[in-house]
Amino acid sequence: MSSKLTTKIIAGKYKGKSIELPSLETTRSSKAILKESFFNVLQYDIIDTIFIEAFGGSGSIGLEALSRGAKHSYFCEIDKKSYKTLEKNCKAIDEANSTAILGDTFEVLPRLINNSFKNDPIVVYIDPPFDFRDGMENIYEKSYVMVENFTNENLFLIAFEHKSELALPENIGLFIKYKTKKFGNSSLSYFQRTLTEE
Prior knowledge:
This protein has one domain (6-193): Vaccinia Virus protein VP39 (Rossmann fold). The protein is 28% helix and 27% strand. The protein has helices spanning 32-42, 60-67, 80-94, 105-115, 139-148, and strands spanning 6-8, 18-20, 50-53, 72-77, 98-102, 122-126, 155-163, 171-172, 175-183, 186-193.
């Protein structure tokens, strides 16, 4: 059967618009209930932010963020097939305010975050591809190191989507975990920036 898998924007100005999903061999789509919970937690904090989806996939989280008032969404995706789908979704939903980047998240993101957005609050969503790709055994450790290298003071919130069986550290670099919500096999852990020492 060749019919494409899709999901929909849940709320906001693009509510009901369809997002095409890449093949399940290369990416997982964040569950609707998890996505809805994430945006319920953020609510008005999402408005006028720079939203960055670290492992872009279909772009469903960052495009939902745009629908709910984010200023601009950035996506990083290393898989070329997934990237093509991501580009198509950005064009279909909000081409002017979305930027898809083809590349290695671990190289691209620290440069992007640390060298840009000096006047805008930043939210980062990290959903490491832990199931469907080979060579991903140390994906979380690499993600922690990446977060440790984020130095932009405007980055105020990082959310990790992860396997529920995995307990994330209480602190990663300048960020402290303040909440974890479980959704079956997947969980969301929230980290906020700690106050810098004088």
